[in-house]
């Protein structure tokens, strides 16, 4: 897949393994939510995916780079059904999955992405 605008600024300097992980996650999110609006946040080393460009109200998921891992996060993750128990976090809303290699099981992540986008569409009356 062609990477979205801002990809190189966010993930271009990552070590090869983490860049591959971020790329595979980007493919997963855009395959699961093909109409997703993607916004780069180079200062936060993250890409936001949502039903519109406004992260706080329309954002569903994000990919964030860290020094030794890449997170697939969910802005309203605390409310997502997580039957696999893979979401981490203790904040009021955000939850994430930590990944350090591109060889992850995509199925539970795809399910979370689908539910996160469905939640945003329903909450904003865009079903």
General description of the model:
By secondary structure, the protein is α+β, with helices and mostly antiparallel strands. The chain has one domain: Aspartate Aminotransferase, domain 1 (Alpha-Beta Complex). It has 4 helices and 5 strands. It is globular. The mean pLDDT is 95.
Distance between the termini: 27 Å
Count of runs of 4 or more consecutive helical residues: 4
Please write the string of helix (H) and strand (E) elements.
Answer: HHEEHEEEH
Largest sheet: 5 strands, antiparallel
Return residue spans where pLDDT drops below 50 for at least 5 consecutive residues. Answer: none
Question: Any idea what the shape is?
Answer: globular
Helix % is 25-40%
Number of extended strands: 5
Quickly give the structural class.
alpha+beta
For the biggest β-sheet, the strand order reads 1-2-3-4-5
Tell me, what is the CATH class? Alpha Beta
Q: Please state the CA-atom Rg, rounded to the nearest Å.
A: 13 Å
Mean pLDDT: 95
Which architecture would the CATH scheme give at its second level?
Answer: Alpha-Beta Complex
